[in-house]
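Continuing the batch. This is chain 6 of the set; chains 1 through 5 are on the previous pages. Same settings as before, nothing changed between runs. Recording input and output for traceability.
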Amino acid sequence: MLDSYKRPITYLRISVTDRCNLRCTYCMPEEGIDWIPHQKILSLEEIAEVARVGARLGIKKIRLTGGEPLVRKGIVNLVEEISAIEGIEDIAMTTNGILLPEFAKDLKKAGLHRVNISLDSLDAEKFQKLTRVGQLEEVLEGIQSAKEAGLEPVKINCVVTPSTTTKDKEDLKTFCNKEGLELRFIQEMSLEKGEFSVVEGGEGGNCSICNRLRLTAQGDIMPCLFSSSGYNVKELGIENAYNMAVALKPKSGHSNKVGSFYNIGG
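Output for chain 6:
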């Protein structure tokens, strides 16, 4: 698939749920969250079918996101189904890492290749304040579980917020160098204001080479995180939704007035 700017579209990010076991300040409000009703969330079978059709159209890479993907029941089975799809060459997951001690080995066996784990500070007090309910030690255990299971390279995603200090960044660099982890710094974004930048240590945010689409948990294929447009696979049919999203993918991101990070999969 080529969009109107001749960019090959080969990457699909799939938000399997909008639920999460943390409440990170830059991602979720503390309360009053407008959850997607369960009856509107795609079943695992429907998600797998979207991936199959995508592979037929040229999708080669899948990333599973949330919310927190590991709170979705049946996530290991979904990975196994996607890994069996001809044409899918890479399956990754973005997770907060807390449930990896329980799932890492099974995910690897099912066909998951690697993980990105969110870790914004090695200061336990600051980590808890950022996540509202998280414990740093749980994430560190998750990182070790991912390494032991062979979900490598393990990448660490650090969201840089106004509270991030030089020490936070240096401590993370030292930790990642010691543990053999790849570190990426992601500047805090605003969907509504259209504020984003290129990821330090990654390719995200570089619109000129963007090759991705996004599938929300309720079945909307979005051409861009910073766009309010979405094309529902149930209403339009899967292939038609793909074609519309590709055809209308913008040259660069602008703003998103209808979505949130936790229900799109930032």
